[in-house]
Structure formats: structure tokens, C-alpha cells
Amino acid sequence: MISIIPFEQAMHAVRDLRKKHLLLGNGFSIALKPNIFTYGSLYENADFSKVPHVTKLFDALKTQDFEVVIKHLQDAATVVEVYRPSATTLARSLRNDAAAIKDALVTAIAKRHPDRPYDVKPEEYAACRTFLSRFEHIFTLNYDVLLYWALMQSEVDALKIRQDDGFRHPEEDPGAPWVSWQQGNQATISYLHGALHLFDAGSEITKYTWSKTDRPIVEQIRAALDEEKYPLFVSEGTSASKKARILHSGYLHKAHRSFESCCGSSGNAIFVYGHSLADNDDHVLRCIAKGNAACMAVSIYGDPASPENKLIIAKAETLVQQRGPAKGKRPALDVIYYDAASAKVWG
Is the distance from CB of 29 to CB of 146 less than 8 angstroms? Predict the structure, then answer.
């Protein structure tokens, strides 16, 4: 049996470690808007009209998890290419369907997303900012803009949150209706898998903002999708394919290396909130196992004996085993499990 402790007790347990960093999963968004950000809700609102046959695959696999279906399609294409090299049309169709499901996921999130920052209550922002302020660096695997909104709501409190995401006004076009990522900046906020408001413009990564246009970000995103312009998004079905996608983007690669760096010091603790530690994010979790961070604190929501939580606990223990025993200046990985609800992330 494991011990689940309150969030504040978990913070107290790592008080002697120099820095605490945060890794956010989809539970961060679900905690605020469960009717919007669960896979079931997104599936119900996804537009599969271009590939209506894929709904049969969701049914056959008994899942509403987009990434699970994407993985099966990508794996099937690989198998076809090996067993039937001549069936190039089928392999291409399978990969095209995987890409179409990814696009449907992006569009569903944008469609269901709250329209404006004031759709979230000031007291919810205040609670969230209090939680975020406890950490040096914040890394998120989420695609929505809730984190961005929370960081921007500085009028609800007097907290000093380090919220540099590395984006600046373009030097050659300071009046442009966007900001662009500058490689040299040391970001403290990183979107490890991209986000709705980040777009690959070819020569640069740009971020949509409200302040440059007076137009709500979500409205801008939906307009871009209507023009078949898609945001920077990593939703491939496997860890390996996600890692490959990351390595082909300067922004994503640097964000990943920043997480690696934060996992590298024995004086650091990595807090994981709202993430299932699923295998398809092993490219991220491996940084913790291979690093030197002395402690990983993992949130557990609900009954620790539930099947979902048993998987989380088993995966956390696997990371401990991958790290191995203390050796020289490299500590063993200590795991703390804390009650997700006690963190009161949105109040």
C-alpha cells in the first residue's frame, strides 16, 4: 500500500530541495472544465465528416482516446508496409486517417474551448496562480490556453510569477498581430507538445495574442482552422513518433531539452499534476528516470486502488527502477504521491 498525502505536506517534504518544477497533464484542464476537456467530451464534439469510417475504429477499440486510435492506425500502416509492400495505397490511407483524426482533435478542442478569459472566475484564477507560483519552471502537455490565461491574470493578486514563454515582438515587424519565439530567451513556461495558440509559420513559431489584436485568442484560432491552418500540435500515437515530431521543431526540441535540464539536478523536485504517466509520453517521463532530480511528486485523483491509479503508481515505480539505486552524486528517485484534490488548483 502506498501513502497519499496532502499537497502541502508534499511541498513540505521537499522543502530542502533547491528548486521545484511542475509538469502538467490534461487533469489540469479537466479539474476546471470536466465537461469540455475529457476525451469523451471531445469525441462527442469531433467532426469526422471527412473520414466517417474512423468512428467504427473507435467503437471496435472500445475507446474515445484519440491517441490510442492514431497509434493503431500508424502501427497498421507500418505492418502493411512490411507484409504487403505493394499495398502503398492502403498504407497511405491509414496514415492519412491518422492525420485526419489529429486534425479533428485540434478542431474539437478549439470548438469546445471557453471563448474568453472571463469565462473563468477571478477566484479560480487566483487559486490557480497560487498553485503555479510555487514552481520555478512550468511544463505543460496540454493544448488549451487555460495556463496562458491564468498566467495573464495578474490583476487578481500580487503574486510575482515567472511567466516567460520565450515569445517576443518580432524585431523586424514590431507591429505584427502576433509575437514570435526567440531562440535565445530562457523560457520558464514551456508547451512540450505545442498548443492551440502556437503556429508554425515556416520560418518561425508564432503565438496569437489578444493584446496585439483586441480579438479573443480562441476566436483567432477558430478562424485559422477555418482556413485550414493548424496549430503546432504533437498528438502522435506513440512516444517514439512524438519524439520524432519534437526533434523536427526548434521550439519543441528546446522545450524538451529545458525539461531534461530541470530533471538533471539532484537539488530539484519534479511535481506531476493531472498526468496518467501513460507510455505514449515516455519521451518526457524518461527524462525524470535518466536525470538526477531527487524526488518526483505524483498527483493521485480519487481512489488509489482504482484501475487508472494502479497504472499510474505502477508506472511511477517503473521510473524508480529505471533510475536504479543511488550511485555517487546521483540519488535514487524518491516518489511522493499526493492527493490531487488537496492542491486546490482552481479553488
Answer: yes
Assign 3-state DSSP to the chain and report helix, strand, coil percentages, each to 5: 45, 15, 40
Residue 221 has a pLDDT of 84
- CB neighbours of 42 closer than 8 A, spacing ≥ 6? 36, 64, 66, 105, 108, 109, 112
CB 202 within 8 A of CB 241: no
| DSSP state for residue 326 in the 8-state scheme | -
Helix (H) or strand (E) holding 239, with range, is helix 239-247
C-beta of residue 93 within 8 angstroms of C-beta of residue 121: no
Give the span between the Cα atoms of 36 and 250, in whole angstroms. Answer: 31
| Distance, CA of 2 to CA of 159 (rounded, Å) | 34
Give the whole-angstrom CA distance, residue 214 versus residue 186: 27
C-alpha to C-alpha distances, 332 to 12, 262, 284, nearest whole angstrom: 19, 16, 18
Q: How far from 338 is each of 7, 273, 300, 304, CA to CA, in Å?
A: 5, 9, 6, 10
Instruction: Find the radius of gyration of the CA atoms of the chain.
Output: 20
Judge contact between 54 and 100, C-beta under 8 A: yes
Contact between residue 144 and residue 37 where contact means Cβ atoms under 8 Å apart = yes
Spell out the residues 6+ positions from residue 59 whose beta carbon is closer than 8 angstroms to its own.
none
pLDDT along the chain (347 residues), means of 10: 94 97 97 88 90 95 91 94 95 94 88 88 97 97 93 91 78 64 78 89 75 73 82 86 89 94 97 96 97 98 96 98 94 98 97
Helix (H) or strand (E) run with residue 83 in it: helix 66-83
